[in-house]
Amino acid sequence: MVMTKTGLMKKYPRFFDVATMKFFGSRLEACGFDLGDGVDLFITSEEDPHGVAWDGERRFTVRVAWLADDAREVHFDVGSFGKHGTMREAFDAAKQTMANWERQKGLLSRENIKDLT
Q1: Global pTM?
Q2: Which of 14, 49, 91, 104 has its CA 20 to 30 A from that of 40?
Q3: What SS3 state is found at 30?
Q4: What is the block-wise mean pLDDT of the chain (117 residues), using blocks of 10 residues?
Q5: How far apart are CA 109 and CA 90, in angstroms?
């Protein structure tokens, strides 16, 4: 199921905090996807306005997030932070992550979700 940008930002307000996003030059690039079991996948991009990281180039990250039982936000990068140089690369990686999730349904859980990478 597709999740809107607004829906993701409401569900994960700490992650999408305006000041934090500004500091990292972050953008939520596209709608997100509900993988089931309350797990969401989305793509962000980051750009260092000072040019220290990635020579100031905007980079893209595929992320997975969910709310823990105590309502704490849990999120991590699929692959590495800023791994993708283009939105197309990030989107292809997101599609592969979704395919892996579907293929391994029942074998993956929140505890071993990093096996998607």
Answers
A1: 0.82
A2: 49
A3: coil
A4: 88 90 88 86 87 84 87 82 92 88 62 54
A5: 23
